[in-house]
Write a structure and sequence with these properties.
324 residues, alpha/beta, Rossmann fold, 2 domains, 10 helices, 14% strand, globular
């Protein structure tokens, strides 16, 4: 396995340059989310698996008889059919991987069955998906976006991994959840935050309709920011004392030093939705297994290279993860 540091220097020639018509981090973020279409990927096979607590997870599989598997984690209020997920699934599939893109609890077409949802540190569900993959594959790669990237990094650092988990790549990761939550609540990010909150509040209402009494509905009117949502909903329903406790226990920055496999972290310096801590060059010094790429441009889950073709983040991720 090549040393990550050597890989980093080999990547210098890949310095990212955004299209001229995406002149700032906000447009780099918004354009892919609203307008990107991914074609040429076969329709996935949906599998529903049971969790140890008798809930369920929905997994989308792209299989072609490959001997390597990539497991893909989406971001906050995402799902397995988002364009950024499909784009990453496609490039790995085209490069000799089977792919499993899974949905966090409550993020597929059906609300999950237990009185909890998902959160940034719910690695027990990722472990359930990994265990499913280990039934058939001897070589597994993990890839995560944003919240799913934090989940991935925490998973890698908090436990002794099965040796069949070989490498990982994460993109646009809020490694410090508290400071990134505050960034999302900045005035210039009002539209992003309100979109997240609208979806999250709808999810709470859906959960309450499915399991009456499961959600503290009286607190819904108190939610004005993402931190408020985590204070009144995410934290208490998942056993944390409050938003600060939830952020402290689940921020992946606390787990980076213990990661034992080659791991790529790709965070743009102009990402409007994560704090500066996520692109701090000192992160790479925490662990020789970490390769940190922090291009000046890219936005949040962006890195478009034009109107068609793979995104820069996808090309970098598959190159890093394909090195044996």
């Amino acid at each position: 396995m090549p040393q990550p540091l050597n890989f980093y220097f080999n990547l210098l020639k890949y310095s990212y340059k955004r299209p001229f018509w995406l002149p700032n981090g906000h447009l780099e973020t918004i354009y892919p989310a609203l307008f990107r279409k991914v074609n040429g990927l076969t329709k996935p096979v949906r599998q529903r698996i049971s969790t140890p607590d008798d809930d369920f997870l929905d997994l989308d599989w792209y299989k072609n008889g490959n001997d390597r598997l990539m497991i893909l984690q989406h971001g906050l209020e995402g799902s397995s059919d988002r364009s950024y997920v499909l784009g990453m699934a496609k490039i790995f599939f085209q490069n000799g991987y089977d792919v499993c893109a899974w949905n966090f609890r409550g993020c597929s077409s059906e609300m999950n069955s237990k009185p909890i949802l998902y959160h940034s540190g719910a690695t027990y569900d990722l472990d359930t998906v990994v265990s499913e993959g280990l039934k058939s594959y001897e070589d597994i790669t993990l890839v995560g976006f944003s919240l799913g990237g934090n989940l991935t990094l925490k998973y890698l650092g908090e436990r002794d991994l099965d040796p069949r988990i070989k490498r990982a790549a994460v993109i646009s990761v809020p490694v410090d959840l508290g400071s990134s939550s505050d960034v999302i609540s900045a005035p210039q990010n009002f539209i992003y935050e309100q979109r997240f909150l609208t979806n999250l509040k709808q999810k709470v209402r859906r959960k309450e309709r499915k399991i009456p009494g499961s959600m503290p509905m009286g607190d819904l009117k108190k939610v004005k920011t993402l931190r408020d949502f985590d204070e009144y909903f995410t934290a208490p329903i998942h056993g944390f004392k409050g938003a600060t406790d939830y952020y402290n226990q689940n921020s992946s920055i606390h787990f980076l030093k213990d990661i034992k496999i080659p791991t790529l972290i790709l965070n743009a310096k102009n990402d409007p939705l994560v704090s500066e801590k996520s692109s701090d060059e000192s992160l790479a010094s925490l662990n020789q297994n970490i390769t940190l790429l922090t291009p000046d441009q890219g936005g949040h889950v962006g890195f478009s290279q034009g109107l068609s073709g793979p995104y820069w983040s996808e090309e970098i991720a598959v190159k890093f993860c394909s090195e044996r």
